[in-house]
Amino acid sequence: MLSSARIEQIKKLLEVINIQTDNLVLFDEALTHPSFNNESHINKCYDYERLEFLGDSVLRLFAGQYLYEKYPDYNEGQLTKIRSCIVSDKFLSGIAYKLEYYKYIDMGLGEEKDRGREKESVLACTFEAVLGAIYLSSGFLNAKNFIYQIYDAANIEETMHYYNAKERLQEYTQGINKDLPEYKVIKESGPAHDKIFEVGVYYHGNEIGTGKGKTKKEAEQTAARHALKTLNITSSN
């Protein structure tokens, strides 16, 4: 039995994502982090992991169909590259954050103190779990429309340029003289469980960009974006 406060929470989210359903328990499941049952006196006997599994499959199907329809002239390799971007944790967590999913997640105190609501992995998993709940409660077409609306609202080309900054920088430098940019960690800060990496990107020994991130990969992408801006490299270069 859901509390009146929890019911109101879920109804608010359903209003935000424009989904109508009476199956509020299914969405409560989608919004329950695995840590919750370990630390709460309320035993729900479920968390978002099973719905996340389903939602991941649903997402890949609709993402593939969306790209197939939107880019009729693209080959399989091009479509695969774009899909990997728009189903990534980075992309999904950004959408989940914009929709304020973090407000509605039930999680344990330990995860709460560890800033779990801000974690990319948690937000991405929640997004997929909610999608799984939409699919089960509202059907194929409503789930498809939900995903299509999200992708329509996102600038796919701009998103690709944003997430593929390293690839774009490498293509640019190789087009000049085949040499590759080099990435180096400049600094690490923060506790072991929440490190921040600062990375510099160098070309022929000269620093052309720097960036920070919670992983080295993220920091490298940020540094590459900085370099593209410094070098005035646009999507048309």
Distance between the termini: 58 Å
SSE series: HHHHHHHHHHHEEEH
Structural class: mainly alpha
Low-confidence stretches: none
Shape designation: flat
Spatial order of strands in the largest sheet: 1-2-3
Helix coverage percent of residues?
Answer: 55-70%
Main sheet attributes: strand count, strand direction, barrel closure: 3 strands, antiparallel
**How many beta strands in the DSSP annotation?**
3
> How confident overall, as mean pLDDT?
91
Indicate the proportion of strand residues: 5-15%
**Alpha-carbon Rg, integer:** 20 Å
Query: Helical segment tally?
Result: 12
Overview of the structural elements:
The protein is mostly helical and 237 residues long. It is built from twelve helices and three strands, in the order αααααααααααβββα. It has a three-stranded antiparallel β-sheet with strand order 1-2-3, with helices on one face. A hairpin with a 6-residue loop joins β1 (182-189) and β2. The N and C termini lie far apart (58 Å). The mean pLDDT is 91.
Summarize the structure.
This protein is mainly α and 237 residues long.
